[in-house]
Design goal:
The protein is built from seven helices and no strands. By secondary structure, it is mostly helical.
């Protein structure tokens, strides 16, 4: 477990320093070792979330989306719909959907987040995305 925590921290550090290839390498290795954990907990969600962020920033939206969908399902079942991990997964997934042009799905998730919490660091991104989605809907209207 300690090794996974170190790998997650190293991957996060690489990600924060914009060394995305290095971050992806470390976090992918950590992700592949997650089944070895005796219990499913916050560490698994953190590794999945960090890897999703890295892949999102690398433009690997389908891979990022898959990780965030898994993360959302897992965090909801473990912690409930209003837990910070669940809200973070909803935010990441909503933003990934938005980048893929899946505006209805994005809007639904991002509205849930904005209605539930203003404490997330990503809330500005959520509000900007919602504004852009609503602007797109107006622009494409009759």
């Amino acid at each position: 477990r300690m090794m996974l925590e170190v790998m997650n921290a190293l991957g996060w550090t690489y990600m924060r320093r914009a060394k995305l290839a290095e971050a992806e390498f470390v976090l992918t290795n950590a992700y592949e070792k997650l089944p070895q954990l005796e219990s499913v907990d916050n560490l698994k969600l953190q590794v999945m979330g960090n890897l999703a962020i890295v892949r999102f920033r690398m433009g690997k939206l389908e891979e990022s989306t898959m990780l965030d969908e898994q993360s959302l399902k897992l965090s909801t079942s473990l912690f409930g719909p209003e837990h910070i991990e669940t809200l973070s997964a909803k935010t990441r997934l909503g933003l990934a959907y938005w980048q893929q042009g899946r505006n209805d799905e994005a809007e639904s998730l991002l509205q849930e987040v904005s209605a539930t919490s203003t404490q997330l660091p990503e809330v500005t991104s959520v509000l900007e995305a919602l504004s852009a989605i609503k602007g797109d809907a107006k622009d494409s209207g009759p």
